[in-house]
């Protein structure tokens, strides 16, 4: 039977093979750009397999002794994660070929981390989750060090230490839950009654994940790591890693809470965390002068908004779909944002906000794409960011968390200050654009596609929502 | 036959904006945008004329399910009734005037018209959308075009004014969003439609929340909606953004801002604050109508007194707007219970929105023409302009006289209607507010006298213009002024055209 179960994890297997073969063919090919195409091919094949699996999906399967689950949520999210990675590698083709020295290692590690993320979203056993999280984050540490700036090593080290710390805390949480329930499996683990140990366990579990999701006050590694990392890795961290982390949170929270458990205290805890995250993120972003760091803090703030949805799903699991919609929308938006950033940084050869001045006059197209992304982060109507925020906050109000929603809305109003500051530099400033370099048009290709998606999902979200609804209801 | 006619009208400017992207010739862009605005005006005029007054109710309904998630159910629902039809017409008219007044635009022409077209679509959307979320989307969407229009094409401290405008409006919008979400979170509310429409079996929020318990007390939801609209109206003490935004905005944007954007707030007050909170449990709008009248009175008097001190023409008109929009709230407050209310006042209040739109539009238009020629708006530096530009002066005087409520012009009609109704209910407030009219006469006559007549200040060294070279407006300058003067005079003589509409709409909003 075990052999047959391999078919369910066919696409992670293909990715593992891809990552190994990339290393091998590195010895034989002269044109290193072929490596990129080979990786893209591997990703493409696995996406195809996933799509076939999605179309021929019959029922949920617990595979490999119930350590993994094969359900629609996994397939759907896997398709999205793979597509995002595909876009990142394709869009940053120029960057990888010209600015990364060890191309095969870079690609291989990236794919390995992706495999980790895929396992994260299908794991239902705490040991598997732990291993998958490690598999997802260890390659990132070395990938961060691939950056050539002076901060890269520091960034990698910071990430290494804090990632280890967070896994430690995560393991601690698992230990508590295991001690109480005697089970490591999400399927059989039911927290039937409330006692300090279970609460402590869940809180530790959450903190472990919160590190990865850069939720304040556990976001300290994010600004430095993002600033030091190469741009593909920043994009990967804020889209793929983040999505995987949130799907994991959604899955754990859907599984472990049963009626016997009093979630009120935990909800208060999460609400406070989410408010702190939004506020620190937005206030931090106001102070930034560097574009990359500004978007890092905006990531922290957005993690806070996403947490609002997570809180709502504890009381009402149907809120999971709105949270997922928001997270996916955010991932699409940041994909577009970071590609535009890379393009702009190439043009100005530094990443200060001042460098944006006069951008629209010099490069109107990239300005418009970038603006769409910024407006989506700000939550202006007709973008996916707005829809996501409305849905998440409405889920919160629905579940009696009106005060969190109010603080969330106030926060997104504070964020207008720095987002509009960007637009002021781009459009209103009369200074001439200070162009120091040239940029490859590749970056804009993916950015414009994803900002098109930002608009489509913002204007007509119903299709995506109903898709996500069916996906979530299968869990 | 009229399926999606309203949708086409609303989105026609936005489609033109997309269409403009492929053009580069500045002259062609101006021509296309102005003709687009004329077509939009004709479409709105057609809507206004073909609205069936015998039938009443919501007409030209466009409806389909839009978002159908667990947490929010929203539909794409457009329609106009007697209350919104004149406002749609006003939007079409003022947008046309605003576009026509921009024919001289030289700086970044393409962007300018694209933003202006998007602004027009969002305003039309506000007046026609009958779904709360859709309403909110259009209400918020106007921010970005306004930010750009003030920030790029403005004058003076334009960036400061633009961001101030956005922050005030966003803050108001934040309150409105919370109010919408908490309305929907209530058990009894299953749709976000703002009105009940029997033809498509839709039950709106007013019927759904009547007598029901809400998740957040109705008084707080009312307050949140009210704050959002009070910022936009603007009501003392939330009026701070208006003078700056007006002063620094380009002429066309001032026309749009004073002419139609402020009316979105008045529309919201009628449609939402009055429409929703008449039969809610624990709290109704009737409980606070006295407070509303007080706020309106404060706005009228405060605005008028501040206006007296202004020496900048645009700032002066901006502050007078605060005073004039105070009348809207005063008339609106003449609803003390579901049986005691004054249709006179409510109609007057709605009329005041329409007339203030046209009159202030004309004021800003003429001030814009004067500024184009003299490069100053300081009353102390102007003078005796009527000799050099008699036609512009004529329209400036018309706008001034209409604004102070001279019989025969539209301003008189709305003000007298408001006072007729409120005098029975709030005699003290009405008497105090009536002084607003006296003050208005003061600042307007003073303004007209100092700038148009009197002595010219050419002798002064810091004069920014050469008095001898001043030219009157040409055909293209005067045409929009003529167009906008027509409704001012028509309403002054024959107000019944619009009053029948408003009366019908308001009666339906009152339950």
Describe the model.
- The complex is a heterodimer of chains A (475) and B (511).
- Chain A is mainly alpha-helical.
- Chain A contains 20 helices and 2 strands.
- Chain A has helices at residues 2-5, 10-25, 33-55, 72-91, 93-99, 103-122, 126-144, 152-181, 196-213, 221-228, 231-256, 264-287, 291-315, 319-348, 359-362, 364-378, 384-398, 402-428, 442-459, 462-473; strands at residues 61-63, 68-70.
- Chain A has a two-stranded antiparallel sheet.
- In chain A, a hairpin with a 4-residue loop joins strand 1 and strand 2.
- In chain A, helix 9 (196-213) packs antiparallel against helix 11 (231-256).
- The model of chain A has no long low-confidence stretch (mean pLDDT 87).
- Chain B has 511 residues and is mainly alpha-helical.
- Chain B has a domain at 288-511.
- In chain B, strands 1-2 form a two-stranded antiparallel sheet.
- The longest helix of chain B has 32 residues, at 343-374.
The structural class of chain A is mainly alpha
- Kindly report the average pLDDT value of chain A: 87
The percentage helix of chain B is 55-70%
Distance between termini of chain A? 23 Å
- Beta-strand percent range of chain A: under 5%
How would a textbook summarize the main sheet of chain A? 2 strands, antiparallel
Number of helices, where a helix is a run of at least 4 consecutive DSSP H or I residues of chain B: 20
Total number of beta strands of chain B: 2
Biggest protein-protein contact in the assembly: A-B, 39 and 38 residues
Oligomeric state, counting identical vs distinct chains: heterodimer
Write down the overall geometry of chain B: globular
The largest sheet of chain A has its strands arranged as 1-2
- Low-pLDDT parts of chain A are none
The shape of chain A, in one word, is: globular
Q: By helix and strand content of chain B, what is the structural category? A: mainly alpha
Specify Rg of chain B, calculated over alpha carbons: 22 Å
Name the helicity range of chain A.
over 70%
Bin the strand percentage of chain B: under 5%
Record field, number of beta strands of chain A: 2
């Amino acid at each position: 039977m075990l052999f047959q179960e391999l078919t369910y994890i066919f696409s992670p297997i293909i990715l593992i093979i891809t990552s190994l073969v990339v290393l091998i063919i590195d010895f034989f090919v002269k044109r290193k750009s072929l490596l990129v195409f080979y990786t893209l091919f591997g990703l493409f094949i696995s996406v195809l397999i996933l799509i076939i699996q999605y179309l021929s999906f019959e029922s949920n399967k617990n595979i490999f002794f119930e350590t993994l689950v094969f359900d629609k949520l996994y397939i759907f999210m896997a398709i999205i994660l793979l597509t995002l990675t595909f876009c990142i590698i394709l869009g940053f083709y120029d960057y990888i070929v010209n600015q990364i020295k060890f191309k095969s290692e870079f690609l291989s590690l990236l794919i390995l981390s992706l495999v980790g993320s895929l396992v994260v979203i299908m794991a239902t056993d705490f040991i598997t989750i732990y291993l998958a999280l490690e598999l997802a984050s260890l390659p990132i540490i070395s990938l961060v060090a691939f950056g050539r700036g002076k901060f890269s090593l520091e960034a990698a080290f910071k990430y290494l230490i804090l990632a280890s710390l967070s896994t430690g805390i995560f393991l601690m949480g698992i230990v508590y839950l295991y001690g109480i329930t005697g089970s490591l499996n999400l399927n059989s683990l039911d927290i039937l009654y409330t006692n300090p140990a279970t609460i402590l366990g869940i809180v530790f579990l959450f903190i472990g994940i919160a590190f990865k999701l850069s939720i304040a006050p556990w976001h300290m590694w994010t600004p430095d790591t993002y600033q030091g990392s190469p741009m593909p890795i920043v994009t990967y961290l804020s889209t793929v890693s983040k999505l995987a982390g949130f799907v994991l949170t959604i899955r754990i929270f859907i599984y472990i809470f049963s009626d016997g458990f009093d979630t009120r205290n935990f909800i208060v805890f999460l609400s406070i965390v989410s408010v702190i995250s939004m506020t620190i993120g937005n206030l931090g972003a106001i102070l930034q002068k560097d574009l990359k760091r500004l978007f890092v803090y905006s990531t922290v703030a957005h993690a806070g908004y996403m947490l609002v949805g997570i809180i709502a799903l504890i009381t009402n699991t149907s809120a999971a779909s709105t949270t997922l919609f928001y997270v996916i929308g955010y991932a699409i938006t940041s994909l577009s944002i970071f590609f535009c950033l890379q393009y702009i940084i190439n043009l100005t050869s530094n990443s200060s906000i001042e460098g944006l001045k006069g951008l629209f006059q010099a490069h109107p197209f990239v300005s418009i794409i970038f603006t769409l992304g910024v407006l989506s982060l700000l939550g202006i109507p007709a973008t996916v960011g707005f829809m996501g925020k409305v849905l998440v906050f409405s889920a919160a109000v629905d579940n009696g968390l009106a005060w969190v929603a109010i603080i969330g809305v106030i926060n997104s109003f504070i964020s207008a200050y720095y987002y509009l500051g960007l637009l002021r530099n781009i459009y209103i400033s009369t200074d001439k654009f200070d162009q120091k370099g040239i940029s490859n048009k590749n970056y804009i290709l993916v950015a414009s596609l994803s900002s098109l998606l930002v608009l489509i999902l913002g204007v007509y979200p119903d299709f995506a929502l109903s898709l996500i609804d069916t996906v979530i209801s299968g869990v | 036959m009229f399926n999606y006619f309203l949708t086409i009208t609303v989105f026609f400017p936005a489609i033109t904006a997309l269409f403009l992207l492929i053009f580069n010739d500045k002259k062609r862009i101006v021509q296309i945008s102005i003709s687009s605005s004329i077509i939009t005006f004709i479409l709105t005029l057609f809507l206004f004329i073909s609205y069936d007054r015998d039938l009443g109710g919501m007409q030209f309904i466009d409806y389909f399910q839009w978002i159908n998630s667990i947490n929010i159910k929203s539909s794409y629902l457009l329609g106009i009734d007697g209350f919104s039809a004149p406002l749609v017409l006003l939007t079409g008219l003022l947008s046309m005037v605003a576009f026509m007044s921009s024919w001289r635009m030289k700086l970044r022409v393409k962007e300018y018209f694209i933003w202006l077209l998007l602004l027009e679509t969002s305003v039309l959307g506000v007046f026609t959308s009958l779904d709360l979320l859709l309403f909110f989307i259009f209400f918020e969407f106007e921010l970005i075009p306004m930010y750009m229009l003030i920030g790029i094409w403005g004058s003076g401290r334009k960036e400061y004014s633009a961001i101030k405008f956005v922050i005030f409006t966003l803050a108001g919008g934040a309150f409105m969003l919370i109010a919408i979400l908490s309305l929907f979170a209530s058990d009894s509310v299953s749709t976000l439609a703002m009105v009940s429409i029997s033809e498509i079996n839709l039950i709106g929020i007013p019927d759904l929340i009547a007598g029901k318990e809400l998740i957040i007390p109705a008084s707080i939801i009312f307050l949140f909606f009210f704050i959002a609209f009070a910022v936009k109206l603007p009501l003392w003490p939330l009026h701070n953004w208006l003078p700056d935004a007006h002063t620094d905005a380009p002429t066309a944007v001032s026309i749009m801002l004073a002419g139609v954007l402020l009316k979105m707030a008045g529309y919201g007050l009628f449609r939402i604050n009055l429409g929703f909170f008449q039969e809610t449990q624990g709290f109704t709008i009737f409980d606070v109508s006295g407070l509303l009248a007080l706020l309106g009175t404060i706005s009228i008097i405060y605005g008028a007194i501040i206006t007296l001190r202004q020496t900048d023409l645009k700032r002066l008109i901006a502050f007078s707007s605060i005073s004039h929009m105070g009348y809207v709230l005063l008339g609106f407050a003449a609803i003390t219970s579901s049986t005691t209310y004054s249709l006179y006042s409510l109609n007057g209040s709605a009329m005041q929105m329409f007339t203030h739109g046209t009159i202030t539009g004309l004021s800003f238009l003429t001030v814009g023409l004067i500024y184009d020629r003299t490069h100053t708006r300081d009353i102390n530096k102007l003078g005796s302009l009527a000799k050099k530009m008699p036609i512009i002066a004529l329209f400036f005087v018309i706008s001034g006289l209409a604004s102070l409520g001279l019989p025969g012009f539209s301003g008189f009609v709305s003000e007298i209607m408001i006072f007729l109704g409120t005098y029975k209910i709030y005699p003290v407030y009405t008497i105090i507010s009536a002084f607003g009219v006296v003050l208005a006469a003061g600042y307007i006559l003073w303004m007209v006298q100092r700038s148009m007549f009197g002595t010219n200040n050419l002798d002064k060294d810091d004069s920014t213009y050469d008095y001898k070279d001043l030219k009157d407006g040409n055909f293209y300058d005067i045409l929009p002024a003529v167009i906008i003067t027509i409704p001012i005079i028509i309403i002054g003589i024959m107000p019944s055209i619009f009053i029948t509409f408003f009366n019908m709409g308001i009666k339906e909003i009152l339950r």
